[in-house]
Amino acid sequence: MKTMRVLARAALIAASILTVTTAQAAQPAGVKRTDLQRHDLSVSGREAVQVRVDLAPGVAFGSHTHPGEEIIYVLAGTLEYDVEGKPPATLKAGDVLFIPAGTVHAAKNVGDVTASELATYIVEKGKPILTLVN
């Protein structure tokens, strides 16, 4: 029984390391995504995920979607969001944005300092948090 617990812990640690390494490798230059928290919701099959996203000046994060809603709060800098079906929106620190589930969108730092956002996702559990769109 003790051996089983040790093996289970080792497997969890290895999976965590591989997940972090894969996520960091997929980030474009000038973009830093920091996972802050992830929790199951009272709605079956859904979870809440919070991520801090930092973009260097002039850097864009290309078109992508999420398997649920995204709620954005701009922490610092100036970001331009291109959300499918809407005109581009330029947001500064303190501004918010709601992006419906599955909506194609992109973001770009249009300022001269690092821009940061707090992204909160309400998503389907077990699906990739982000899918790039060509």
UniProtKB/TrEMBL annotation:
InterPro entries linked: Cupin_2, RmlC-like_jellyroll, RmlC_Cupin_sf
Keyword Signal appears in the UniProt entry: yes
Signal peptide stretch: 1-25
Matching CDD domains: cupin_BLL4011-like
Keywords: Signal
Cupin type-2 domain mapped to chain residues: 52-116
Keyword Ribosomal protein listed: no
Gene3D superfamilies according to UniProt: Jelly Rolls
Record-given protein name: Cupin domain-containing protein
Organism: Bradyrhizobium jicamae
Lineage: Bacteria, Pseudomonadati, Pseudomonadota, Alphaproteobacteria, Hyphomicrobiales
